[in-house]
Batch of 4 targets.
Target 1
Amino acid sequence: MPSPNPLAQLLARDPRREVDFPEAPLAAAMAELVALQQPALAEATTPNAGSPDTEKMMALLCQVATHVWRAKFRMVDPVTGEPRDETRRLYRHVEGAMEVFAQMGLMINDLINQRYDAGLPIKVLTFQPTPNLLHDTIIEVVRPSIIYQDRLLQMGEVVVGVPLTLASDKP
């Protein structure tokens, strides 16, 4: 009997009658292939957390990111949020470095002027009574929180402003 063409095999009601399948089921072979590839993919995409070299590299990367963040913060006018005229040309390069950090998967959390929540992964250096606040607000960031692939690399350090009415009510 001549072998049917591929189109006839696809259109056949029961293609197993016309095609010889191998002894091993395809699903089991695919599962075995995926299981073999997963450890290699995991090693290629995530650094070895236990390696001292990796830990040192991540710590140095956090320091670099913190310094670039500070430079960016000092180049921006706090009132307008725009770069100052004297630093506008340099600001583009700092923004470029911040974009590279984002492409690497490094997230730099600057929580300035956001409402304070006790569950945030930050270290509060002090609570400071501040006028014109309605609720506890992060008024200064000393070090930003840095996160890489859902892993906290550097805990942020902040100053939290508390409303004067709440500060005066406390004993």
Target 2
Amino acid sequence: MHKWEVLTREVLASLFEIKNSGIVWKVGRNKGEFAGTPDSGGYLQVDLRARFNNSSCLVYVHQIVHMLDKGYVPNRIDHRDRNKLNNAPSNLRETSPSHNTLNSKMPETNTSGYKGVVFEKDRGKWRGKFTYLGKRYVTSRVDSAEEANRLLEIKRREIIPDYESIIGENP
């Protein structure tokens, strides 16, 4: 049985209450305490496998919050502020893989200082690159990372209809 057939809104409401930026246990030895432990990626998860004798009942707090707040769990949930520990309903939104990637943090391996801007060593030039809805977009090659980023932002705004609302205050 799929976990969301077991973990309905009613079942989760009997176990948890949304409080601040997370969920609090309503039952058991942890009653009144915030639920969830960080996984290797930094997202909070709750282990309900033993409680429901179901191996698929290891669930993320943001999924539980979305189910309690909206009544369903979408395929992908985005944290608007990029804070994996902020699971307040107002910080969560249903999203597509493309939109989720746009709102992701800059990779630690980034050397340009701009998300999506890379240096092409063989040509000695900078270029902007991004993928949206499965299609790859690139800018022309330029002499500076700043110029490549400027061109990249223009291209993103041209291609992505709701770009500003996706990135919000997180360019």
Target 3
Amino acid sequence: MKQDVTANAEAMAGSIKETGRVAVYGIYFDTDKADIKPSSEPALSEIATMLKNDGTLKLFVVGHTDGVGQFAHNVRLSQDRAAAVVKSLVAQHGIDAARLVPFGCGPTVPVASNKNEDGRAKNRRVELVGQSRITSLPCDGRMRNKKAPRGRPVALNSPSGVSCAENSVDG
């Protein structure tokens, strides 16, 4: 499913200010790859504009996948995709790398069902999460080496050394 989404710097900034995060659906990758497609440039440009408009904004760039395939592979893929977005923002748009932290959650934080293509397409996304408002990532390390509560995913250490488990944004 091709999603035609127009990213907007002002709207993204507003969402991050209000909720601490924004999902960006205009960043495209080939299946099972972390290479950013050229058609992603408008969204990346809007993210860069947002960051340039607020020089104090620091973000976690969080990659998400659908639930198709091996769990550990999807976590690595989401981390690689998040890192590719950071690399592009730094290399092509001049954003300071110290303001961006890539993080991969794999399939642990779906926003829709993985039982159909529409749902899987919504789950394949990049989220921008403001670092100043966060107490834990959608997949944070508080669950590491603990038994997961009922209905929660069991933690898996990501390449960044943080685990995918739960989310808590402070107000």
Target 4
Amino acid sequence: MVLDHQKIEGGAITIEYSQNITSVEGLRSLRAIKGKDSAGYSLFVGHNAALASLKGLRNLAGDLPGALDVQNNSKLVSLHGLEGITAVGGAYTNKYGGYSLFVQSNPLITDLEGLRGIKGELPGSLMIGYNDALRSLRGLEGITGINGKDVRGDSLTIDRNARLPSLKGLE
């Protein structure tokens, strides 16, 4: 993997299991991710106890060749900063496998507006679950199809988002 402060070539970005990272401002000059890891992720942000913002990724633009996964970030308030991502080109292949886009267990996010740049079909499945404050699926309107399945055979899973009143945003 090569990081030239503008793009990641041949690998992924993983930000995980941090107790102290509150923002990703140090990545503000990042323009592209042109690779994925061996599991199929291009961008994984998970299990970060203090991470409140993804706005440091605001200059990231274009297609991701692998999956996008944002999960278990207890202080994350939105997905803003990801608006420049225009497509997700792969799916990860672990024991749960098959997801192209996975947003789960981020208890403070209220919408998915940060994903509004993603257009077209997903090659893998889509999971939005356990986001306790989620009130809207707005931001997913550009997704026109889902071509993959998870290990249960589901292409789309919207699960246990306690405050989600409707599926508007999927039309």
